[in-house]
Amino acid sequence: MKSWAEDGRQLSRPHFDETLLHCNPGAGGTVTKYSIRMSMVKSLESHKDLQGFIDRFDNFLFDCDGVIWHGEELIKGVRTVLELLRKSNKKLIFVTNNATKSREAFKAKFDRLGIQADLDEIFGSAYATALYLKRILKFPDDKKVYVIGEKGLEDELASENLKFCGGTDPADNEFIDLMDFSSIQTDKDVGAVMCGFDMHINYKKLAKAHRYLHENPDCHFILTNDDSTFPTDGSLFPGSGAISAPLRYAMLGKKDPIVVGKPNQPMLDCILEKHKLEPSRSCMIGDRLDTDIAFGINGGLSTLLVLTGVVTRADISQPQAKILPEYVIDSLGDFAVLSP
User: Fold this and answer.
1) 287 annotated ligand-binding residue
2) Domain residues for 86?
3) Could you write out the DSSP letters of every residue in 86-128?
4) 176 and 54 in one domain?
5) Which residues are part of the catalytic machinery?
6) What is the pLDDT of residues 95-130, one digit of tens each?
7) What is the pTM for the complete model shown?
């Protein structure tokens, strides 16, 4: 199921406009404008409903924060549910837009929380972006990636044997004197700019990235994700999308970035490339409508919304709700009642 050519051109994929986001391609049936509302969202409550849901799918894709855990606290019943799915020979994939951590770092967290997760099952947006560049775009071995991001992004580029510069390099983390552009020098071997979350973002990094994109029409422009904010410590903080916003604005009308993370499809393309999943037998489970559920819908997967994150039943009952899941459940941990 490809949607991108090797040169990065977007190919045809079933299009879901805002009226069709009320349905899920996995649900089947005829779609009429605004006809599918909350009455079509199946609430999983009875033992029969829960077992029928599990039996319907071979593959489950999970968001992590708000679905599996809250910070460093595992959501009640989740460990039992994941063990149940493995015993039922289901394939599990963990999909997160967090681009600051490598798969090894995520695995360390799974280990701390007592959850089995193999490296191949973990798809952070940092890894997916590296995989997309290497496997889908066929990025040349003799070219480098200029990185705006943290060490986790560098680690994942290295895991795919991709050369890079910038990132955590101390030279790029220095502030420059006012109107002194002499230190903004470029590397002729750079063929892509990759932007993720960077807590040390500065003008020098943005200016250098802009030079690569402005001076080389063939330079790829790739974002790990474009999340405007992320929740932590009881508040909201600027996310990766806010980090890349100045660069996107500077390139407005000249070059649009490829965004890999949810709800965009390059991440799913990477997962399908690696695991050869059948979309009709796969379900995306998440706590956010605009990323997780939209990601599943756009990719032809079924969708399950859990209410342990940022969305409530009231949110999906609103007439103005444009994105609705196929299924809803209070918590992923509710499936634990199926465990013998």
Assistant:
1) yes
2) 20-97+263-338
3) HHTT-EEEEEE---SS-HHHHHHHHHHTT----GGGEEEHHHH
4) no
5) 63, 65
6) 999 999 999 999 999 999 999 999 999 999 999 999
7) 0.82
